[in-house]
Amino acid sequence: MLPEPLLWTEEGLSLLDQRRLPLAVERCLCRTVEEVARAIEVMVVRGAPAIGVAAAYGMALAARERRSLPEASARLGATRPTAVNLFWALARMEKASAGEGDPFARLLAEAKAIHEEDIASNRSLGRHGQSLLPRKATVVTHCNAGALATAGYGTALGILRAAVEAGKLVTVFADETRPRLQGSLLTAWELLQDGFDVTVIADGMSGALMRSRPVDAVIVGADRIAANGDTANKIGTYNLALVAARHNVPFYVAAPLSTVDVSLLSGEAIPIEERDGEELRFAGGERLLPVEFPVWNPAFDVTPAELISAIVTETGVLRPPFGSALRAALSGEAFP
Ligand code: MRU
């Protein structure tokens, strides 16, 4: 059983500390909105939907501290720019803050609703997505789009879980995902806990893998999907999509509709977070490069829609052209 990635307690928001996995399973308690903002910045909690849920609880904590809610929202919104789920959740919390009675009770109820809805979306997304896989499937994934990156169950890894629940045999290759190693430290750990056959590969190995054995699908998560289907996800996803296209391997993006940003026409407008270069100058806690070595450290890249075979959401499997498919999926659900 995986520990809960996010857990509301009387004292505050308890987060599984993802910086310590897999060697230590420790929790980190956030009692204030500032502590939640710091936890998102330093990646105690990470993954687009999980960041959104954490920020929602952060707003509830701000109400408990009687802090200015617009200021709290601005602080949380300044933590990480790419995953739109953060801004989607803050917009929902802002709406919930307008109303009668105790704001803390209202905001806590809304945060809990966002938390529960995310798990339900992932289960539904998983059921739709597993239909794309054969009875015996070999899948490559990148970064961590699992239970740890969401409120639970996962998006890309939710599809793998649903495939196993449907009686399918799933073999997984997890890109290690430099520089933060979410693939090896988090995805491999999470899947091993669930008894999956999972093998870690270095990011540059997917081409060799696809030349050497049949691969049925690449499945990744998303941090922001533009109106035309262009998708921002962890750095290295675009390379993997190019390799998959070269080998005629279907490339699937798994994400809840809260990851879709129809206000941006294409991926070019997606803000890409650049993180401290020290992340690249270190590996496994050891310094590899002196601080003066120049590095470039964008945390995400954009995979163009033309390389994406399908986008799997909680409402079903969307096929190109994604513009109309995404609009149809979102109709009935107002985007804040
Ligand atoms: O920098 P991170 O670890 O927050 O990046 C996470 C990813 O890129 C995930 O693939 C994405 O958020 C989808 S999580 C369901």
Helices and strands, in order, run as: EEEHHHHHEHEHEHEEEHEEHEEEEEH
- Average pLDDT taken over every residue: 97
Radius of gyration: 19 Å
Helix content: 25-40%
Beta-strand residue fraction: 15-25%
Cα distance spanning the termini: 35 Å
Shape: globular
| SS summary, helix count | 11
Stretches with pLDDT under 50, minimum 5 residues = none
SS-based structural class? alpha/beta
Q: For the largest sheet, list the strands in their spatial order.
A: 6-5-4-7-10-15-16
For the secondary structure, the number of strands is 16
Largest sheet: 7 strands, mixed
Bound molecules: 5-S-methyl-1-O-phosphono-5-thio-D-ribulose
Protein name: S-methyl-5-thioribose-1-phosphate isomerase
Organism: Aminirod propionatiphilus
Enzyme class: isomerase
Keywords: Isomerase
In short:
With 336 residues, this protein is of the alpha/beta class.
